[in-house]
């Protein structure tokens, strides 16, 4: 009886469903919390959301009224020659939020018809909550896709512990619960969808036009959501290129023309998926292709002087320092190479390119960022890497409990970091130092208790 109950409690449905419910309830519980700007959405989230609100409610892409409502006076919002405001962010998040927005708008219209104090204007908490819940759903769906891929590679136990650990011990939790209006959960989902399809339908299989086209549509969605996630396309698209260059490979014996046809179909699918962004650029900037991110600084990138150490191991935003779970996941790619060298190599290539892009960027500290937020989209790679690390550990009963204990400790550390970041670092111009992210973080509960007692 006890063994049956234990198996039920650790089933993927219970664990992943529980983590989703926990994240959703935590967000709902925090809605009444006081906010400086009086809004649920903020920071970059506003820029992603205004595409949706302006297009649906106003029927245009003139964001001046939305930015004024949300009190956004940001340096990148430079007026265009006609007085309108540009928007350097992608339209993908708005498109994926549309069903949640439509549901909220229907509720608002019904409430207004009943003379209830709800305005169907696309601005208030009802709409903001709806798209935030949408992000939570997409984030959970992304983790579910990661679990499915990791389970096929490393087994159910390692996959489940890897996903649960990343959910609770990485910065994904912050952008799922505290700042879900930002596009990181939608980005996580879009990349997970691309990689899950690539690995599930193309890996070690003969390429086809249909598979290539669907891969391209998924890749285009990644670019629609966050154009800066383009390096992550290197693995799935590079796989097609590799197949074409080498012809009948040991992975998938297929003629070169089949690989070429699948690659052309992938390119066409990508362009089709990108059409909404191209149209948006045309309407806003008057050109079909615009890269407004490059206008933030001159130069925008320092290709020969990337801040690799700063991005990975600094106190400021060091990815492996703020969230050590990522360091374990990166180490797991080496173990994945023992099982599938090609997959591990392609994932490492995409991840390295992503890290290099951020490190070379003028804003490598990533603004107000809870850890290295730019790397949340790569969660599929982190997930399979961590699962590969955990698989041999869980196979040894004597040390298996250490894996669970380590995951719990990292989750607790992440919780302390989350509270500290929200209460101390948000909006502060100075970057955090080593003392603050170590000693001060450990002493945070004591400091908070002292304040309560006063």
How does the SSE layout of this entry go?
Blueprint: H1 2-9, H2 12-30, H3 44-58, H4 64-69, H5 92-113, H6 125-154, H7 156-169, H8 172-177, H9 184-202, H10 209-225, H11 234-246, H12 256-285, H13 308-313, H14 319-322, H15 325-339, H16 341-360, H17 379-394, H18 400-425, H19 434-437, H20 439-442, H21 444-453
Helix pairs in contact: 2-6, 2-7, 3-5, 5-6, 6-7, 6-9, 6-17, 7-17, 7-18, 9-10, 10-12, 11-12, 11-16, 15-16, 15-17
Characterization of the model:
The chain has 454 residues and is mainly alpha-helical. It has one domain (10-292, 304-453). Helices cover 67% and strands 0% of the residues. The protein is built from 21 helices and no strands. The chain has helices at 2-9, 12-30, 44-58, 64-69, 92-113, 125-154, 156-169, 172-177, 184-202, 209-225, 234-246, 256-285, 308-313, 319-322, 325-339, 341-360, 379-394, 400-425, 434-437, 439-442, 444-453. Helix 6 runs parallel beside helix 9, helix 6 (125-154) crosses helix 17 (379-394) and helix 10 runs parallel beside helix 12 (256-285). The longest helix has 30 residues, at 125-154. It is globular and about 65 Å long. The N and C termini lie far apart (50 Å).
